[in-house]
Design goal:
The chain is an alpha/beta fold. The chain has one domain: Rossmann fold, CATH 3.40.50. Helices cover 47% and strands 14% of the residues. It contains 8 helices and 7 strands; from the N terminus they run βαβαβαβαβαβαααβ. It starts with 7 loop residues before the first strand and ends in a 7-residue tail after the last strand. The mean pLDDT is 96. The chain binds nicotinamide-adenine-dinucleotide. Nicotinamide-adenine-dinucleotide binds next to α1, α4 and α6.
């Protein structure tokens, strides 16, 4: 028995990093996974790899900033699978820049993906999630990827930090509205600390370039990041995926509007 048997799950930004780890784990736990990404080559590779290992996965191209694409995706899901059980709003972009160096266009670009993308996902999932056969077990579940940087302030992070704080509020507003309306859709947020993915490799290089943590050396910047975490290391994508799995599954059936830090203790200090 898998923890997600018979579930249909859509993961955005699943072409690499945390999203790919979530897609692989969901498939191992019995879900049919829609691996979506704006990068077709990355997403197809992950879907093919899951299928080659005996899982159920298909790639579906989706840029989360494109409302018409969300509508197409949800109509396709309803036609193909009769609805959607799980949506993981994982796609996100980072920006390492001081306030003076962040242009309005760059600020808006981050908001478009990290905030509008999550809003559109929540909004357009409603018909596909409420259309689920009522005899199906459990509730539908939306899991949004926020960040510890949506709680804590650090330098050179104005756009990303603000966007991830907004994801926490999108989560709470949607969760409460759905509960009040009697929709069977739970909404929760996961807040990772720094996790070993292509996004973070790029970020660490940029923090080093800017000397944000008092050094221009990449290895020393990476060490400075790890030192800020009580568990003294960077997370693996799989460690984030396991908490997303819990929030997505019926095991968390009484949990909505919650925030799960997966941060090696970082938010407690
Ligand atoms: N890595 C970390 O340390 C960390 C920490 C906290 C939160 N997060 C969050 O976790 C999520 C995943 O991060 P990651 O580190 O795996 O990132 P990543 O950059 O390694 O991968 C992101 C994926 O999203 C896709 N993507 C980007 N914009 C998109 C769009 N508009 N539409 C569809 N797909 C798009 C990319 O093609 C890529 O495959 C993000 O929301 C990120 O903010 C990451």
């Amino acid at each position: 028995m898998g923890r997600l048997d018979r579930k249909i799950a859509l993961v955005t930004g699943a072409g690499q990093g945390i999203g790919a780890a979530i897609a692989r784990l969901f498939a191992l736990e019995g879900a049919t996974v829609i691996v979506s990404d704006r990068d077709e080559a990355l997403g197809t590779r992950v879907a093919d790899e899951i299928a080659a290992n005996g899982g159920r996965a298909v790639f579906y191209a989706l840029d989360v900033t494109d409302e018409a694409a969300w509508q197409r995706t949800m109509s396709w899901l309803q036609g193909e699978y009769g609805g959607l059980d799980i949506l993981v709003n994982n796609a996100g972009v980072a920006l390492v820049k001081s306030i003076e160096d962040t242009t309005l266009e760059q600020f808006r670009d981050v908001m478009r993906v990290n905030v509008e993308g999550v809003f559109l996902g929540i909004r357009h999932a409603i018909p596909a999630m409420t259309a689920r056969d009522p005899s199906r077990s459990g509730t539908a579940s939306i899991v949004n990827l926020s960040s510890v940087l949506g709680v804590q302030g650090i330098p050179d992070n104005i756009a990303y930090g603000t966007s991830k704080a907004a994801v926490r509020q999108l989560t709470k507003c949607a969760a409460i509205e759905f509960a009040e309306r009697g929709y069977r859709i739970r909404v929760n947020a996961v807040l990772p600390a720094v996790t070993e993915t292509p996004m973070v490799s790029r970020e660490i290089e940029e923090w080093a370039e800017q000397g944000t943590f008092g050094t221009r050396d990449v290895a020393a910047t990476r060490a400075a990041f790890s030192a800020r975490v009580p568990l003294k290391r960077i997370a693996t994508p799989e460690e984030i995926a396991y908490t997303v799995l819990f929030a997505a599954s019926d095991e968390s059936s009484f949990t909505t509007a919650a925030e799960y830090p997966v941060d090696g203790g970082r938010l407690a200090v």
